[in-house]
Amino acid sequence: MTASETSVPLVIPQLIVGLGNPEAKYHETRHNIGFAAVDMLARSWQISLTENRRFQGLFGEGRGPKGNKIYLLKPLTYMNRSGQAIRAVTDWYKLPPQSVLTIYDDMDLPVGRLRMRLSGSAGGHNGIKSTIAHLSTQDFPRLRVGIGKPGDGKAETDTISHVLGKFTPDEKPVVSEVMYLVRDAIELSLKEGCEKAMSLYNSRSVVGTKP
């Protein structure tokens, strides 16, 4: 058996989805960090995002850093129905689930950290739960961006207000730096596969500086 026969195909994203909620009141909240990431990618790659009714979201297509065709999506279905918009795009372009990279917030990671994985459960995240349901598989890459947890002993209502709240003044510079890490990790995944990006960026972190 040759080396090429035993090698595992690279996981190269084609559709990059940022999860969030569409109303203005959710703009720049922790829960919408996926939207912020896709906005940054659109700016970096000069891809225009416009509302697409067929895809139930803000959608754009263009070329990635390697010149390959890339699709960007921000579902406008609200978080718990994100999978509807994602499935609409994958059906239209006949994309396999393994080519869908989903970016979303994670309370289990501190602000300043990110984590890329090739598959996994929803972990309680409604946007990923919907995505798994509509793609009928857990096997799609995802990039989790840390938003931190509320203080110890906080009630569930405090957790909700934390997720739907905005980053503190101390956290905002860290989040800005993390967005560059997100972009770099995704660009590497487009060139050399998600596994390579995981090996280099899952251990990286941005640490805030105190005045």
TrEMBL record:
Subcellular location, record wording: Cytoplasm
GO molecular function, one term: peptidyl-tRNA hydrolase activity
Catalytic activity, EC: 3.1.1.29
Keyword check for RNA-binding: yes
Residues forming the catalytic site: 31 (proton acceptor)
Site, Stabilizes the basic form of H active site to accept a proton: residue positions: 105
Catalytic activity of the protein: an N-acyl-L-alpha-aminoacyl-tRNA + H2O = an N-acyl-L-amino acid + a tRNA + H(+)
Xref: InterPro entries: Pept_tRNA_hydro, Pept_tRNA_hydro_CS, Pept_tRNA_hydro_sf
Keyword entries, A-Z: Cytoplasm, Hydrolase, RNA-binding, tRNA-binding
Keyword Methyltransferase attached: no
SUPFAM superfamilies per UniProt: Peptidyl-tRNA hydrolase-like
One Pfam assignment: Pept_tRNA_hydro
Source species, domain of life: Bacteria
Binding site for tRNA: 26, 78, 80, 126
Residues under site feature: Discriminates between blocked and unblocked aminoacyl-tRNA: 21
Gene3D superfamilies: Peptidyl-tRNA hydrolase (3.40.50.1470)
Alphabetized NCBIfam families for the sequence: pth
Subunit organization: Monomer.
Functional description taken from the UniProt entry: Hydrolyzes ribosome-free peptidyl-tRNAs (with 1 or more amino acids incorporated), which drop off the ribosome during protein synthesis, or as a result of ribosome stalling.
Homology family: Belongs to the PTH family.
The protein's name in its UniProt record: Peptidyl-tRNA hydrolase
Protein's organism: Phormidium pseudopriestleyi FRX01
